[in-house]
Amino acid sequence: MNRIFLFILKKLLHLCLLLLAVSVCSFVLMSFSPIDPINAYVGADISRIGTEQRELIARQWGLDQPMTTRFFLWFQQFLQGNLGTSIIFNQSVSDVIATRFQTSLALMALAWLISGVLGISLGILAGANAGSIVDRIIRFYAYTLASSPTFWIGLLLLNLLAVQWQIAPICCAAPIGVLLKDVTFWQRLHHLFLPALTLSLIGIASIALHTREKLIEILHSNYALFAFAQGETKMGFIIHHGLRNIALPAITLQFASLSELFGGSVLAERVFGYPGLGDATTQAAMRSDVPLLVGIVLFSALFVFTGNFLADLAYQLIDPRIRIGKSAS
After folding, report:
1. Beta carbons within 8 Å of 79's beta carbon, 6+ residues apart
2. E strands of 64-138, at which residues?
3. Which listed residue, 27, 159, 183, 189, has the most CB atoms within 10 A of its CB?
């Protein structure tokens, strides 16, 4: 019990240091951005406002203060649970993140599940048939997609499935002109299909390649040779011994891919016009909305940290030799 308490305490300390470092770096980088937040806020009407109005806007958003003063004022609010107000949405940053994340969560969860299930399945299929034509096809697919950018795959699928074949919508999270409260479950799933497929394809590649390599290593181990000598079939060995051994690296990769998934959603949501957290991130960066961007960066850091923490907890359930605070014996 004490070991678990110390493990959680260390993780929380690491999380605090991580959030502090991320907030400082994000604030400094955004403060040196060449984009003028007042010009980005006013937009095309910037030529119609005078100096006094410009100073009034700067005073209202605290942009007339030095960077260090703004950071410490923001940090005081952060310690009280207030992430500030978004300049472009004119709403609380917490409300913007909560609303947008609800839309993005379904997208990332579906892509995460597809990439995990298909990645492990293809990796097992390739590893069990190493050197065959099936293995070569899977490796060609994995190497090709692993070196392809998300936005390029998104544009390719958009042109093929939405424009040429017209089996998927071109954009958005709901049919155009339909209120969100009137959208049915199947309509949501239909609009989710293309962005989720784009996000999952790249994740499948890395998980399939690592699972294949691990399974080949296991199939050539001494205990595998002993099992085969005792009459065990390859499929039986994979089911009874292989799956447990390939589960650890697969889970590590799957949870580690949350950061790539979050980064990929920024591009995918932009390509498909999907109104999620990734789209809000792009708008905040392009219009120099420092409170919103810092809030999203902190939230993404917390999201990835939670994924890695869950992976650490899952290890000891899969492999009893691994216990918190100890390495595998």
Report:
1. none
2. none
3. 27
Tokens (6 digits) for 104: 């993005």
The two three-digit tokens of residue 188, written as one number = 């949501």
Burial of 43 (0-12, 13-18, 19+ CB in 10 A): exposed
Could you tell me the pTM of the whole model? 0.73
DSSP state of 241: I
Give strand ranges (E) for 195-240: none
End-to-end CA distance of the chain: 20
Give strand ranges (E) for 81-124. Answer: none
Mean pLDDT by 10 residues, the chain (329 residues): 76 88 85 76 71 79 80 85 83 88 84 87 88 90 82 82 82 74 79 83 82 88 85 84 78 75 78 82 82 87 83 69 54
Q: Closest Cα to residue 291, out of 136, 88, 113?
A: 88
Query: Do 85 and 60 touch, CB atoms closer than 8 A?
Result: no
